[in-house]
Amino acid sequence: MFKLLKQKVSNLMAKTNRLVLLRHGESEFNLKNLFCGWHDAPLSAGGVEQARSIAAANLKSAGMEFDKVYCSKLSRSKRTADLILSELECSFLPIVSDWRLNERHYGNLTGVNKRELANKYGEKQVQHWRRNYDGLPPPIETSNLYFYEICNSSDFQNVPIDEFPLTESMRMCVDRVSPVWEEIKKDVLKGTRVLAVVHGTVARALIKHVEGLSEEQIEKVNIPNSVPIVYEFNMATGQLIGESKYLGDVKYIEEMKQKVAAIGD
């Protein structure tokens, strides 16, 4: 008991800083229940509203302020960040747009309806591709409707040719995100207040790094759109203080987590 009390007092005296992770608002592909990956699907009208009325509103209510924003090269990530900053009246903040924070590449599943795929191959196979740590979708082929758009995107010109994925497992995504996490962590521990607006699997990859979760544990994590996740760090030791905190209505968050976990209609 005394040891626990001593730790709490120590945490209160330590200088701390927060990191906020956020999955972008609903995209047009989310709305249609399609695998998206590196395809640059825009936000849906609902996704725009989520960024404003859920993400920004909850950040504002919690009194969150930021110095720097990280996002991917995909418009659904960048647009969500822009909307949030506009609502918080801080659009002047520096934004780091990094391809390594792009969503996991779903290979030849890109553009395919998840329910139709499950009807063809079975739910177990589709969930293996979606959730198994080493589940690897078939590589994207030239016949895929989005192949040339992805490979020729001007936003991906700086991706080294030997690092440009044609498909990715969760493990590969976690490894890709690792160097960016080190950059974010360095910012946080020197006092920079960071907001990272990313994608579902990338948020999970960052959470694995932040919380030190096992492969089995991260397979079960589901991230709802536009719900801020707050982490607090001891700046001297780099250690987490307490657990993550989701900002928003608890019932809504749990319902959205279940929706993300399911294959959908």
Automatic annotation (TrEMBL):
SMART domains: PGAM. It comes from the Eukaryota. It is an enzyme of class 5 (isomerase). Signal peptide: none annotated. Gene3D superfamilies: Phosphoglycerate mutase-like. Its EC number is 5.4.2.11, 5.4.2.4. The active site is at H24 (tele-phosphohistidine intermediate), E103 (proton donor/acceptor). GO terms for biological process: glycolytic process. Substrate binds at residues 23-30, 76, 103-106, 114, 130-131. Belongs to the phosphoglycerate mutase family. BPG-dependent PGAM subfamily. HAMAP family: PGAM_GpmA. This is Phosphoglycerate mutase. The gene is Dvir\GJ24414.
